[in-house]
Amino acid sequence: MSLPPPKLLLVNDDDFLQHDTGLDHPESPARLQAVYQRQALGFPDHRLPADAISTLPPRPAARRELTAIHTEEYLLRLEEAALAERGYLDHPDNRLSYDTYRVALLAAGAGLAAIDRLEAANATAAGALIRPPGHHAERSTPLGFCFLNNAAVAARYWQQRHDRKKIMIIDWDAHHGNGIQAAFEDDPEVFYLSIHEHPTWSFPGTGWSEERGQGAGRGTTLNLPLPPGSGDDLVLRLLDEVIDPALQSFAPEALIIAAGFDGHHHDDMSGLSYSSELYRRLGRHAAASAARHCPGRLLFLLEGGYQPDLLVRCLGNFLEGLLAVPPDHPGR
Ligand SMILES: [Zn+2]
């Protein structure tokens, strides 16, 4: 019997456009507006198989799902800053508006809604097309446009709600996901692997290769910092030589991709020099890795990517890559 064709669930919602960062902020609603417009047209510039993609609405993350990662005090502080329309929280980078708290709960819950559907075997993979992004957000601190750590919340939810113990998070946003690393650096059951521009040159200044986790979590943090100007070749070599062996030895039960598209050569938020074709390879790699280690349990979450048209092109390539690999899906 032949395997069923891959099916991809995408979480989207116009509410994500309601997090208003003002006219001059790179993390703008225009990013997702561009994505949703192309999605509504069936991504006409890409060769995505008909009927392969269905959409799913998000749900707000519940308090207890958020407090697995963030403090109660921080959630109150964030809510209050938004409702009082304070303009930003802690640093002008973290611009917020009246709707930001409500939208951030939806962004954190989007992955959770997707995980439930994956666990019901309704799809091969799922992605959350969300904002605000999450990977810089720490336990009680917003950072770098991020308020709630969407990927960290999703990893804990997958463990606690569905009893998938070993979660691997691969983060190829151009920047180091300090918040994800901090959430799990002493936890041997969540492996955080990040490939990013070297902290000497790049925000937020963490993600040195010496950072390998601590205590019981020593060895399940892996940072692969790249010098400015690094391109596809280096990333592809690391996939083969470092990332595949890490996947093989950790053997994750679920795979989360922190998918930021700001490493592209023409995205001026980093000095990396990726081509848009690299994202197709990353899509194929994610699908193949999930098929090998955790079939049907692949979730990606949108992080950075700040030029709307370029974001759409790179995301479309990534989706093509994801869908091109027939899933190895025994027994589901
Ligand atoms: Zn980034």
Automatic annotation (TrEMBL):
Domain of life: Bacteria
InterPro entries per UniProt: HDACs, His_deacetylse_dom, His_deacetylse_dom_sf, Ureohydrolase_dom_sf
Pfam family, one: Hist_deacetyl
All residue ranges annotated as the Histone deacetylase domain in the record: 25-321
GO biological process terms held by the UniProt record: epigenetic regulation of gene expression
GO molecular function: histone deacetylase activity
Family: Belongs to the histone deacetylase family.
Name the UniProt record assigns to this protein: Histone deacetylase
